[in-house]
Amino acid sequence: MVLSVNGIELYWESIGEGEPLLWLHGGLGCGADWRYIFKDPPAGYRLVAPDLRGHGASTNPSGAFSFRQCARDVRALLDHLNIPRVKAIGLSGGGIALLHMATAEPACVESMVLVSAPPYFPEQARTIQRQFSVAMVSDVELARMRVSHARGEAQIDQLFAMVRGLADNYEDVNFTPPYLSTITADTLIVFGDRDPLYPVSIAFEMYKAIPRSALWVVPDGGHGPVFRERAPQFVSTSLEFLGRTRR
Length: 247
Hints:
This protein is of the alpha/beta class. The chain has one domain (2-127, 171-243): Alpha/Beta hydrolase fold, catalytic domain (Rossmann fold, 3-Layer(aba) Sandwich). It has helices at 67-80, 93-104, 123-130, 139-148, 152-166, 177-180, 201-209, 231-243; strands at residues 2-5, 8-16, 19-24, 45-50, 86-91, 109-115, 186-192, 213-218. The chain has an eight-stranded mixed beta sheet, sandwiched between helices. Helix 7 links the parallel strand 7 (186-192) and strand 8 (213-218). It is globular, with a radius of gyration of 17 Å. It starts with a strand and ends with a helix. The relative contact order is 0.14.
């Protein structure tokens, strides 16, 4: 399904039945990436999975990109679906969009799981972002991108340019501890201790700053340490966290 909002066509899928559960994919991915973690839609949930602007089947005519704008797009989708308050899972860039939602309008996020989602970009990440190119992506990953992104090589080139543009943007991803302290959502922070982009110390900074948070550091985990053999444990842990009321 497609929603015209904020100058783009936002593609989204709704799968399963029950309580809404928002899934926000990572950069260069798409909403359908939930299938790499869940074999089926989580029981008891209606999974809402948009393609962030410029990704998948969603458009981005201007080429401009920010995670704050992605958060506004997603918020508009939730309004369209009459979902005033939601549980959510955000992976990497999707988690950054969730941070914007949870700080701009705390009441709209009941609980969330943030996977490899930093409050700021450390220099080691910016170094990689500045030189990011097709040559840095495996053939398997590039083939996956060509399937996921509907408008072909021009869209993929735009996404690589988007990543490079993040390197010198210090305003969009800048969640200081006082800002994080305004989050009211129960928050599970998931980080790998071998993430090449974001040192695990960042996870502890977030844990200290977000009032109702829990921390899961995945041993020997890289960036997005919730796929393949780790997916079953992530599914059980995250759904248990989202399914309980914490005080």
